[in-house]
Structures are given as structure tokens and as C-alpha cells.
Amino acid sequence: MANLNPFRPGAGHMPPYLAGRSHEQDRFRELLQQNSITENLVLTGLRGVGKTVLLETFRPLARIDGWLWTGADMSESATITEDKLATRLITDISVMTSPLIQTHTSKHPIGFGGIETKESATMDYPTWHDLYERTPGLVVDKLRSVLVSLWSLLQGHVNGVVFAYDEAQILSDRAKDGQYPLSMLLELFQSIQRQGIPFMLVLTGLPTLFPKLVEARTYSERMFHVLFLSQLSSEESRKAVVNPTLVDGCPLQFSENSIASIVRMSGGYPYFIQFICKEVFDVWLSKLGSDESPAVPEEAIISKLDNDFFAARWDKATDRERELLITIAGLTNSDDEFTVSDIVARAKINLDRPFSPSQTNQMLGRLMEKGLIYKNRHGKYSFAVPLMSKFILRQLAKGPDLFS
Ligand SMILES: Nc1ncnc2c1ncn2[C@@H]1O[C@H](COP(=O)(O)OP(=O)(O)OP(=O)(O)O)[C@@H](O)[C@H]1O
Ligand SMILES: [Mg+2]
User: Which residue among 36, 269, 306, 358 sits deepest, i.e. has the most Cβ atoms within 10 Å of its Cβ?
Assistant: First the structure.
């Protein structure tokens, strides 16, 4: 019966109903109206807030406005060097231009209607890679030449190209290895855009992303418009819960009480909405036709959520880092922003072995790498995982096996 369940908890799974986010979509449409690109987009927010699926909805919007779209999920490669990033971009360009070959050989034009291709100019990976290799200079010069050629091929046929990269917070410059892939990407698009070529960058990732861009190249501050996705409003959350059950063939609808419970438990976070709804739906489905009136089994759902979602994140932290996380969870502002001195002050009260400011700083750095914490532009910290402090407090209440 599982296929009757419309809800889709899972990274990148398109929800049955995408609630809210029309402001973000409008903003993206506006960016597509730029004649020369001065603004690119960063789409950021906590884990599970809906970045990947929103990015996916941008793709048809771009197409409607005459833009091509290419890109990838950066998390698929472990470490990204300049060479790997170049391969990534050339691959993405090849995927996009491969219909040119089809136009030519199969006589079924897809996209690119009017482009003439010569026999020798099939625009596949070897062609682009060859051009890349033949261009002298640094990786950035070679890529620039590829992008300039790409535009001379597309100009007059499309309005521009969106280069969309998910999980872009993974990109890092590493001075000790002499590798600057992040700076290179920014430099590349900045110089291409300065030449009037309408290639727009759309980067998606955790809230560490934008500070990282600015750190790599200070002009990123002006180069990107930042959309920070928050939790859904209660009206939007309600729609995310209710609308999927309103379609033809859906065997049940939630009661008003249950809708209110789900919205409250989820805190408006999209992943939690899908997760809780899926569980509740299954329970209700199993009780269809029986006399029992179904409710929301809150405790069971929360403990499943703890196991399925939070535990994997918690497991990444060492014992000492967990002490730090517990200390943070005890702060009254733990759901919001907190500072090193907030943590140090609190640790003095609740720990036998408190933390010094420098230890705290270092540990926060490691927790940022592990994707549990992020630092905003004003130097304050927050949890990168929604409702994390509540999870930690639940674990504390359970007792001593917290560090197992
Ligand atoms: N606007 C929305 N309305 C309803 N459900 C949503 C919405 N946005 C996302 N979801 C659901 O939330 C879950 C998480 O979405 P998604 O994977 O896009 O988040 P994310 O921000 O990319 O997470 P991560 O940081 O882990 O990559 C998915 O199950 C998706 O179906
Ligand atoms: Mg994602």
C-alpha cells in the first residue's frame, strides 16, 4: 500500500505539493531578465529546508525564458581541484550541447533549432576538451576560452545559460595544496560576465556557502544575490500537509487536530513535514475501515525521526564535541544565533571541564566542517540542522548513554 502514500521525505525528492517559495521563484525570474549579468544567485538554508527541490523548479522557469540550463551536484566528487572543476564544467557543457549532434544526425531537432553544425563540429566532450587543451595558459584561461566559444555557438539562439551547482559549499580553496577551485570559478564567471556573456551562476548549499564565497573573493558580496530559505509559514505548512491528500484517488484526509499537530511538530521545516506526514499517513491507512479513530503517534514519530535523521548527524561528533553541542543546546538562544562567549560562559556553569574560548573556536570550526554548525557573516554561530537543540535535549532527558 506504500505507493498510495503521496509524501516524499528524502534529499532532493520533489514534494507532492511545493508549498510557498513563490517569492524565491519570482526573484529568480527577475534575474533571468538581466541583459548583462551583474547578479548571480546563492540559494541557501539549513539542512532539509528545500534548496535542492526549489533549484529543480527553477530549471523550467529558465527554459520558458529562453535560457539553457546545466549543472551538477558538487557533493559527488570528494575533493575538487581546479582540474576536476574544469572537467566538471566541460562535462556539463557537453551534456547541454549534445543535442547539436542529434540535430545534425537524426533529423529530430531538439532545442537549438537554427544552429548549423558542420560535420566535424559535433559539440561533444572530446571537442570541448580538445579546445580546452589547445588553449595556452592557466586553467581559468582555458575555461574562459571554452565559455567564449560556447557563447559564440549559442548567441542569437538563447538568452543565456544558467550554471547551477548544488551543495556548492563543498568547494574550497586550499592554499597548502596550491589549489584554488572556488576562486577560479568566481573569477571565471566574473570575467565572462564582464565581457557581456550571459552565463549566470546559481549556487546552492548550506549557510556556510556565502561566507565562503566572500572569503575567497570579496567581490562575491556584490556578485551574488542571496536567497535564504527559511521554514514555511504556518499557512504554507498547512498546505504542504493538506494539499497532497486532496488529489483524486487519495484514500484519506487528515483531521483538523492532526493537521495542527503535524504543523507544530515540524516547526515548518519541509523535510520534517514530509517525514511526519508519511508516517501519519501510513498509520491512518492501516486503520482505514476499523472503528479506531486515528491520531498522530507523536512519540513514535519523534523517536523514528531521531534515529533516521538526527542520529547520523550526532554520530559525526566526538565526545568532547558533544559536550559542546549539549552546552549550546542549553542556551536560551540555541535555536537562533550564539557566540563563543555565550558558550564559554554556559560551559563554566554546566561542565566539570569547561572550554576556553580558543578550544571553543577550534571545535566550532570542526563542527562546521561536519555540517552541524555554521557561522554567519556577522561572526555568530547557529545550528546547520533544524531543530537540533530539541533533539539534543531529548537525548539528555533519556539519560547516560548519550556518548555511545
Ligand atoms: N516547499 C516545500 N513544500 C513541501 N515540501 C518540501 C518543500 N521543499 C522541500 N520539501 C521536501 O523537503 C525535503 C527536503 O528537500 P531538499 O532535499 O530539497 O532540501 P535541501 O535543503 O536541499 O536539503 P539538504 O541541505 O540536505 O541538501 C524533501 O523531502 C522535499 O520533498
Ligand atoms: Mg539539497
Answer: 269
d(CA 61, CA 33): 12
Answer yes or no: is the C-beta of 52 below 6 A from any ligand 1 atom: yes
302-354: pLDDT as tens digits = 999 999 999 999 999 999 999 999 999 999 999 899 999 999 999 998 888 88
Ligand 1 centre distance from Cα of residue 141 (Å): 37
Quote the cell numbers at residue 28.
529568480
Question: Rounded distance, CA 16 to CA 6, Å?
Answer: 6
Cell of 249: 484517488
- In this structure, the number of other CB atoms found within 10 A of the CB of residue 114 comes to 8
Quick one: fold of 313-403? Answer: Arc Repressor Mutant, subunit A (1.10.10)
Ligand 1 atom with the smallest distance to the CA of 275 is 29
User: Which amino acid belongs to residue 1?
Assistant: M
Cα–Cα nearest to 32, from 58, 1, 5, 71: 58
Q: Which atom of ligand 1 is nearest to the CA of 55?
A: 18
- pLDDT band at 297, cuts 50/70/90? confident
Q: Is 244 in the pocket of ligand 1 (CB under 6 A)?
A: no
DSSP string, 313-371: HHTTS-HHHHHHHHHHHTSTTTTS-B-HHHHHHHHHHH-SS---HHHHHHHHHHHHHTT
Residue 299 burial (CB count, 10 A): 8
Instruction: Say how many Å lie between the CA of residue 18 and the centre of ligand 1.
Output: 9
CATH 3.40.50.620 fits 22-229, yes or no: no
> How many A from CA of 245 to the centre of ligand 2?
25
Calculate how far, in angstroms, residue 51's C-alpha sits from the geometric centre of ligand 2: 5
Rounded to whole angstroms, the Cα distance separating 60 from 91 reads: 21
Q: Where in the chain are the domains?
A: 22-229, 234-296, 313-403
- What predicted TM-score, i.e. pTM, was given to this entire model? 0.90
